[in-house]
Amino acid sequence: TLYTSGSTGRPKGAMNEHAGIVNRLLWMQDAFQIGPDDVVLQKTPFSFDVSVWELFWPTLVGAHTVIAAPGVHMDPGELIPAINNAGVTTIHFVPSMLQIFLSNPDAGSCISLKRVVCSGEALTRDLQDRFFATLPDCELHNLYGPTEAAIDVTWWQCDAASELQTVPIGKTIANTQIHVLDPQLNPLPIGVPGELHIGGVQVARGYRNNDELTSKQFVPDPNTDGRLYKTGDLARFMPDGNVEYLGRLDHQVKIRGLRIELGEIESVISDIPAVGQCVVTTEPSKAGDPRIVAYVTPADPDQKLDTARLVELSGERLT
């Protein structure tokens, strides 16, 4: 069971099958062909699903694994020497952390890097261009997939010369299917946005001890004997068969690869007696990556809100 992130400290356990994880690992080796001369940096916390391939992929093929010290992935000043000292060839970033990494003037010194894998958030064209300006000889791969489908289900190799204004999430990996459907599970034409559904060997059994949510998110595939996972993501097929990610259908956002339900945060803050109304949104920080911001009004217009106390009370239920 892999637990997805959540804003209330009560994440959902996605029951992935061994076959799905193995399929994901074998596809990655078929696609990237690492070997004994490669070094994979394991820097993702064990609670995040990307750590699965960081640990097991190099082990499967005899490549080297270097485990970063805790917190190194958050500090380019420590991460860059770690990459260079170990001769790291393969590394993962969520786009917000890639942005921080590239903001360091020494990022271009990481000439051992052969491939950077991005997932967990939408990769922008601006960030792609910045990457190739900094590391022109390194590959950049954009992967997409939820924990409920064994980590990743689509793949796009970025191209510095591409004329596309967005970065697609690409086409499906081995033994998986992607469907863009309307609310009645009817397929939508090329170019028409709809909810992205996932089918194939990597779809999880469901959520642990949560039959109600499982029946809502894991639905029968009308065309096969299998099931589809409803991602809640808005997407559309491009004319060449690649998929373009368009955003969420609900109020969920991604912050450094973690799923955050803004509605859950609003509910927690609104339950505090001193709060009248609350709206939670995201805004860019000074570094450019998104941060969560809550706007509140007092229940009593004549009383000033104690913001420090609100933070303390909210923090007792939010993680």
Helix content: 25-40%
- Enumerate the spans where pLDDT stays under 50 for 5 or more consecutive residues: none
Oligomer: single chain
DSSP strand (E) fraction?
25-35%
What structural class should be given to the helix and strand makeup? alpha+beta
Number of E-type strands: 18
Number of helices: 8
Tell me the radius of gyration. Answer: 21 Å
Mean pLDDT: 91
| Biggest sheet features | 5 strands, mixed
Strand order of the largest sheet: 5-6-7-8-9
General shape = globular
- What is the H-and-E element order? EEHEHEHEHEHEEEEEHEEEEEHEEH
Give the CA-CA distance, first to last residue.
20 Å
Structure characteristics:
single chain, alpha+beta, five-stranded mixed sheet, five-stranded antiparallel sheet, 8 helices, 18 strands, 25% helix, globular
Outline:
The protein has about 325 residues and is α+β, with helices and mostly antiparallel strands. The chain contains eight helices and 18 strands. A hairpin with a 6-residue loop joins strand 12 (about 220) and strand 13 (about 225-235).
